[in-house]
Amino acid sequence: MIGETPDRITRKLRRAERLEWWSIFWMLTIIAVMYFAMGSSQAMKSAWIEDTLSLLPPALFLLARRFEDKPATAKYPFGFYRVGSLAFLLAAGALTAMGGFLLYDAGRALILQEHPTIGNVVILGWDVWLGWLMVAALIYSVIPPVILGRMKKPLARDTMDKILYTDADMNAADWKTGLAGIAGIIGIGFGFWWADAAAAGLISFDILRDGLRNLRIAVAELLDGAPRELTSPDIHPVVKTVSEALRRRFPGHDVQVRETGRYIRANVVPAKGAELECWQARVWIGQDEAWRLRDINQEVRDLPAPAGDPPEKRGCQ
Q1: Transmembrane ranges (predicted)?
Q2: pTM of the model
Q3: Per residue in 251-306, pLDDT tens?
């Protein structure tokens, strides 16, 4: 039945929840390791902040899952399906803000020609350059996220979950952050003072780009825009498919398709005469509130079956 989430999707969402809990665990260990190895490196600072921000998508995904399937209430008559959209907007906004700040910080370090220093530490009686510990921390910070990201991406595509896909994309691309950070550390070791700030700039630019792309998609969704692709602000092909099918079935009507979290809603309204006359609104809700009632959509039931469909009812499993 339409409106029921198939069991196969529910199972994949549960698997995604387990992976997100594992993500939080591994990211906490990475954040701790990176913090103690950070030193005065700008690239390490940017990588550490990115790792800290990586906690936000899994936390928001788990929070959204707690509310998404709750039944509708008098205050929320359409249910809580769009809580995922709100969480996606928050994650995108945080990424954008932090990416912009880190890019400014890296640019400032380059302009002021700040020369970072990496000293030595004594470990078991040995004098060790701190840069090697930073490189080891960066290598460790890459391995768990890349593995988890590759595991989460197929689940995100199948469940059409933008938060999960954003998280998986950030995880899978984490090797770029690690590589940039390592290049910055090695550059300092060779005396290239600007290598650290340049690496930090590359990391922050990557954060900012992801944030702006996701923010654009999230804003379109919350503005009742047509469903977007997971990976870009382009309109999803399902919009054209649904719209053309419904226009053929209801000639002379307009079709409006919008996104509701991972789900989509389609309204079929007459091309002409759907607008309310002002006097009708005044009669129904009064003079003062009449301007707020834009239209009334009637739910279509008992749709005629498309030609060639089997007579038996088919579920969405």
Answers
A1: 21-40, 46-64, 85-104, 129-148
A2: 0.79
A3: 878 888 888 888 888 888 776 655 666 666 667 777 777 766 666 666 665 556 66
Query: Three-class SS string for the chain?
Result: CCCCCCHHHHHHHHHHHHHHHHHHHHHHHHHHHHHHHCCCCHHHHHHHHHHHHCCHHHHHHHHHHHHHCCCCCCCCCCCCCCHHHHHHHHHHHHHHHHHHHHHHHHHHHHHCCCCCCCCEEEECCEEEEHHHHHHHHHHHHHHHHHHHHHHHHHHHHHHCCHHHHHHHHHHHCHHHHHHHHHHHHHHHHCCCCHHHHHHHHHHHHHHHHHHHHHHHHHHHHHCCCCCECCCCCCECHHHHHHHHHHHHHCCCEEEEEEEECCEEEEEEEECCCCCCCHHHHHHHHCCCCHHHCCCCCCCCCCCCCCCCCCCCCCCCC
Phi, then psi, of 301 in degrees rounded to 5: -120, 165
Bridge-based pairing of strands 126-129 and 120-123 is: antiparallel
